[in-house]
């Protein structure tokens, strides 16, 4: 769609409701919850979905006699809220609502100088007093505190579901904090400099940036336009700060028996790399204006970082003390920020937040979310209220009143977040200000998810939410968009309503409903002020079953979902400024054709390709059935799985990787299979039975005499569907537009589903080749030992799409799948 066309039109939408569907909500279990760092509601939930986190704060010797005087700077954990008291408060909260916060006050990760009382983060050279970029002393103290505190918490039988971190000192490691110090020679004399130099050069490699001793001596000449300065910030303020928080805070918590706790640090999240292909990132959309204005450490280069197992940032809607809504992006040279802005308004604030969420999810779909939001009347440091609650003279007040909810709904559709973090500016009163809003919004999301899944129902832990950015109508082309459309796929990992595979290939695909949220810039009658044109009010009572369409004031029609239907909460929508549209993708049955494609398609449709996969695998790990991985493939004999945190991949488990830890599995061209993670060094996987390796043959459908099962709409896409017999019956759906792009692979092990859902997809050609090192074993895999549990591996997944090591170039050998 040409946004330039709409700029010449009145940005006013007249609604033409062709018909609305009679959807009835039957109630929903609690899937979405909000956790607040306010102290008012500790141990007393505000509602069934809004809870206050229990803080761990410094109490000192006056409140804890086991805390020695002036012990704040050392590693004593006795100087903070006692593990026993925190455990006791959490026991009063229901499962799912138990959270701990490090935010506010001084917590376990805050260290001060015992003599001066000043905060301590970076190491200081003892002889010169020069502040260095290292944080080893801080990390050592914090790790000891956290380890001991959570060991005592575990001994007190403490239970916790969510932990909120808010450590924002990474910004002190920005490049400009060092250029005015006489620190060059001091840093070069430090024994840790060679390792830091190697780290900087490693981060700088994609940008053709190197660091030599003379470069550090010349730091005083660095500017924001110096690429070396931005790489410094990326390596230290972003990557290394996240690594230190993970090793000093997150890992000790998980090793204390809380491996499944959901944890993040404020403003640590991802974004697309403005250098695009030069940095070897998958950026098919090639974003040129996406916001990079998170509140934490950021750099115009790189893709951000994550602490714990969730990414997060704030979606507050900016404050109206600045008259414009703006975004900050990498400049022409990728170093100097360009400011894109538009006159401020509630709708524009929603668009900017949606763009930030979309960009972060697109940049790293492996990362799950815990977004931060604030009350509609929130203000930051007295700088005015959020644009989400600002009614300008030209605005329709009724429409603006719903924009706070529209912000939540679009961020939800673009992140799939079920945990929401709540921050209330200290000046806002009462302390429960806004709780009714967030509680109502999350209840509507629960009802919506229940309706999307259908009458078969789904346990809350089995609900799958996957942002869907494949529909071109959901792209955000600018801050002046006349509407906002976001989409998310909702399903149940148990395959509710999908039936079970009885061996004849007739099992229905797992039902997936694509949920759209559509918010126009203007919708009410009469439009006021300079909005112009005419608007027709949406009558929210549902009736009929035909897809809705909207009409822009000049006559350009727009139908977000040709096969969808509007859903309205039977309790009354919390916002009349937008609309829910449900599209049930698997409603249409397979349709046989007289001329099936011949031969069956190749795996992935092309010799070399890459895709993001949403994995559903309750069959192999019912405790961790849902995760996301990035998959890179070369038909010559190599493929790479980069499994995200929270995965239940069986290959990673057999390699003795910590359960749920992000893990990589590479079947390399050397005919070996390597497995590694951040805490588990690389090992070579040997699979004794059938002598196979987990590489998928390009021609597995043809070799297994797959039969054509007609066409079906899968994930909103018209597909050819193939069925192949193995130990289990395999189903494979790909586009029937001549490109054979993979859409979904699934099978049932008994009544348990295992499915790959392909989202982002990229082909590699001579003009756009696969990066040379994309499928090369990392250096740590040279001479890697045998994985500890290799000899115990059996053919648990024996079907036919994976190939034995000795059969890569021998068509006479029988394929096996592990």
Describe the fold and architecture.
The protein has 818 residues and is α+β, with helices and mostly antiparallel strands. Helix content is 19%, strand content 22%. An eleven-stranded antiparallel beta sheet has the order 28-27-26-25-24-23-34-33-32-31-30, with no helix packed on it. A five-stranded antiparallel beta sheet has the order 16-17-18-22-21. Strand 33 (742-749) and strand 34 (752-763) form a beta hairpin. Helix 3 packs across helix 4 (136-155), helix 4 runs parallel beside helix 8 (227-255) and helix 9 packs parallel to helix 11. The longest helix is centred in the N-terminal third of the chain and has 29 residues, at 227-255. It is globular, with a radius of gyration of 27 Å. It starts with a helix and ends in a 14-residue tail after the last strand. The N terminus and C terminus are likely disordered.
Number of strands: 35
Rounded to the nearest angstrom, the radius of gyration is 27 Å
Global outline:
globular
Overall pLDDT level: 76
> What kind of sheet is the major sheet?
11 strands, antiparallel
What are the segments in which pLDDT stays under 50 over at least 5 consecutive residues? Answer: 1-28, 276-297, 330-337, 495-509, 524-546, 552-556, 586-594, 688-692, 791-818
How large is the share of residues in beta strands?
A: 15-25%
Give helix % range.
Answer: 10-25%
Q: What structural class do the secondary elements suggest?
A: alpha+beta
Q: Helix count?
A: 14
Order of strands across the main sheet: 28-27-26-25-24-23-34-33-32-31-30
N- to C-terminal separation? 45 Å
